[in-house]
Each structure stands twice: as C-alpha cells, then as structure tokens.
Amino acid sequence: MSAVAGSLVLALLWACAAIQVDTGFDKNADFSQYKTYFWLSRPASGNASVDRRIVELIDAALRSKGWREVGEGKGDAALDAEVLTEEEERNDTYYDGWVLNQNLGPADTVVTTFQEGTLIVNVLDGRSMRPVWRGVAHETLRWNPAENEKLAADAISRMFSAFPPRPARR
Predict the structure, then answer these.
(1) What pTM does this model have?
(2) pLDDT per residue of the chain (170 residues) written in tens, 0 to 9
(3) What are the DUF4136 domain coordinates in residue numbering (predicted)?
(4) What is the C-alpha to C-alpha distance for residues 36 and 75, in angstroms, rounded to an integer?
C-alpha cells in the first residue's frame, strides 16, 4: 500500500472517530442546591486562547442550566478543569495478499504520531470541596486550531447535555 493510500485510510479513520465523553456523579448529591459556582482551577494547556475558549464554553453550558458564576469561594459549587495532551503512536500494517484467514505477501507498516487530548471537568461542593460530578472527554487533536475549537465545543456540549443529573428515584 502506498504512503498516499495509507494517509487516506488514516484520514478516514480520524473523520469517523467520535469524541469519547464520560460523566459520573455522586448519587447522594442534591444538585437542586447548586445554582452558583466559582472557578477553583481553570485549564492550563499552554495555549491561552484555547483555555479561554474552554472556560467560555463551560460558562455558557452552565448558564444554560440556570447556574450563575460568582466570586471565588462564594459559590455553591467549585469548578476545576484540566487539559492533558499526550503524544501517541499508531502502527498499521497492510499486506498485499490474504488467503485462508492469513495475511500473505509483502507488507507495509505505516507509523503515525498524533496528539491525544483529554479535557477533565470536575464540579465540587463549594463548602466541603467534595467532588459531586465529573466529565471527561478524550479525542485526537487536529493540526488546525479551528478544528480543535470545534472538538472542544462538541465535547463540552455532550458533556453537559444531561447536566445536572436527575435525582435517583427512591
């Protein structure tokens, strides 16, 4: 397989990949008591504009849920957000032949290096600092900053789509 064909396959795989978003919460927390929040820790990815945009997106998501930002230490809830990036490597081997469930013939291995990005958002009780909710989004980062901003917007939208959690039925 040529390098161009390998790049095309890789591009198609990236285009089909979905952002992985997971959320969890303390089932004993009463989310109806949380209406205000403050930022305990803002993301520090090394890119100030990306960090600022993440904060804006989270603020907008919380405002849409009726929450309001207040001064540090004065909210019902505290927010902690972190951005982690890690360089990953993927090895894909392509064979020219395939017979009886076995790969045969010459093979080409394509090694691809890419950045994985993880956004972690924690909501803590503002008084006890006990964690009550956590959202984690994980995705391959793009070379284009505008595409990464779209990824962040999608991740935060999905992360907060069912926020705050509904109380458990008793």
Answers:
(1) 0.73
(2) 444 333 333 343 444 457 899 999 999 999 999 999 999 999 988 878 888 999 999 999 999 999 999 998 899 999 999 988 777 666 776 666 655 566 666 777 777 665 677 899 999 999 999 999 999 998 876 667 778 788 889 999 999 999 999 866 65
(3) 21-165
(4) 5
> Is position 12 within any domain?
no
Is residue 137 within 8 Å of 159, Cβ to Cβ?
yes
CB contact set of 86 (below 8 Å; sequence gap of 6+): 115, 116, 118
Residue 10, domain member (yes or no): no
**Residue-range definition of the domain harbouring residue 27:** 19-88+111-159
Map tokens 């890119």 to a residue: 47
Distance of CA 97 to CAs 8, 30, 93, 107, Å?
20, 60, 12, 9
Of 39, 16, 141, 143, nearest in space to 84 by CA? 141
Question: Per the domain annotation, does 117 fall within a domain?
Answer: yes
* Cα 80 off chain centre by: 14
Does 147 reside within a domain?
yes
